[in-house]
Design goal:
Order of helices and strands of chain B: EEEEEEEEEEEEEEEEEEHE
Strand order of the largest sheet of chain A: 1-4-8
Helix content of chain A: under 10%
Largest sheet of chain A: 3 strands, parallel
Strand order of the largest sheet of chain B: 11-19-18-13-15
Distance between the termini of chain B: 49 Å
Largest interface: A-B, 35 and 42 residues
Number of helices of chain A: 0
Shape of chain A: flat
Oligomer: heterodimer
Number of helices of chain B: 1
Chain lengths: ~70, ~180
């Protein structure tokens, strides 16, 4: 299963290595990441100062969507 | 918005990189519980491990110490302040200065009748810091506990008020004027 840039509610016992972007928490959910490894992931996009429109594209391993 | 409790625990973040913000994790609304994780060698321009959003303006003392900005003392009325007022924009991650923020402004606002904040009442953040130098506060000489409001264009007050209206109430500064 590919988790690249994937919306998750529960993310447990997974290992992500060397991909561009990781997981995003689903909006309006009580999401959980547990016992997982995030290694050498990259987020290369420059988002400037767009703070509340699309933060899901920031953060290389876990990004939180607007609720 | 629906209140969320997100949890990140017992996980390992190693060698992750973001060009701008949040080498490993970033969030923009509800602060997640980040428990028993290990962070190593993560990099970002702001928030090597965890980044969030601007929430408060703090006073910078002696160039390095961040304190809650609640009071100014021995302020002259009607003339330029004689000591610079350095402030920092901090994030939801306690005293993490928003070093990625340049260009946003911070401003003193009048809060009571018969007072004024003029001259340089607005300054611009550079790497999360800004300094008022030529600000002129006006009230009756010797007046105590005169209220001014300080706010920043970098802070989304609408969101903060929704999240915690007490914790993120307007920042009101008490100014004590000299005779």
């Amino acid at each position: 299963m590919i988790f690249r840039n994937t919306l998750v509610k529960e993310f447990t016992d997974n290992v992500l290595v060397g991909i561009n972007r990781g997981v995003k928490f689903m909006a309006n959910s009580n999401a959980t990441v547990t016992n997982s490894t995030f290694k050498e992931m990259k987020q290369n996009r420059k988002e400037g100062k767009i703070y509340y429109s699309d933060l899901s594209h920031l953060g290389s391993a876990i990004g939180k969507q607007i609720d | 918005m629906v209140p969320c409790v997100n949890t990140i625990e017992n996980s390992f973040f190693y060698g992750n990189a973001a060009e701008e913000e949040g080498g490993a994790i970033i969030y923009n609304t509800y602060q997640p519980k980040i428990l028993n994780n290990t962070f190593q060698n993560n990099t970002a321009n702001f928030g090597e491990d965890v980044a969030s959003y601007a929430t408060r303006i703090k006073l910078v003392v002696n160039g390095t110490n961040l304190v809650d900005f609640v009071e100014l003392n021995d302020v002259p009325s009607g003339i330029k302040i004689d000591s610079p007022i350095e402030v920092a924009l901090v994030s939801a991650e306690s005293d993490q200065i928003m070093t990625s923020n340049s260009g946003s402004t911070v401003k003193f606002y009048i809060f009571e009748d018969g007072t004024n904040a003029r001259g340089q009442n607005t300054v611009t953040f550079k790497n999360g810091r800004a300094t008022f130098i030529n600000t002129i506060f006006v009230a009756k000489p010797g007046a105590k506990n005169v209220k001014f409001k300080i706010s920043s264009s970098a802070i989304n007050y609408k969101v903060l008020q929704y999240l915690d209206p007490v914790k993120y109430a307007d920042q009101i500064i008490s100014v004590n004027f000299r005779w």
